[in-house]
Amino acid sequence: xxxxxxxxxxxxxxxxxxxxxxxxxxxxxxxxxxxxxxxxxxxxxxxxxxxxxxxxxxxxx
Length: 61
What we know:
The protein is mainly alpha-helical. It has one helix at residues 19-35.
């Protein structure tokens, strides 16, 4: 059996989207590879990093 490892880096714009957008990105990758004959097995982990907002007292507040 052959396996293929695909890196997934979520792209989040906190002003326009959120977790649903990340789910759609991952679904699109899975569907693209499924069309090529690959079968989805699992995801090991997903890490996220969200830049902090400047807030009321931050720069530009």
